[in-house]
Amino acid sequence: MADQGQQKKPQYGLVNFERRRSPRFSVDLPIEYSLLDSSEKNRGLAENASEGGLMLFLGQKLEVGQDLRIKIFFHSDPLLQSIEVIARVVWTELAFGKEGDCRCGVKFQDIPLDGLAKLRTFLDHLSTIQTPRRILSGPQGDPNS
Question: Residue 83: which residues within 8 A CB-CB, separation 6 or more?
Answer without folding.
Answer: 71, 72, 74, 111, 112, 114, 115, 118, 119
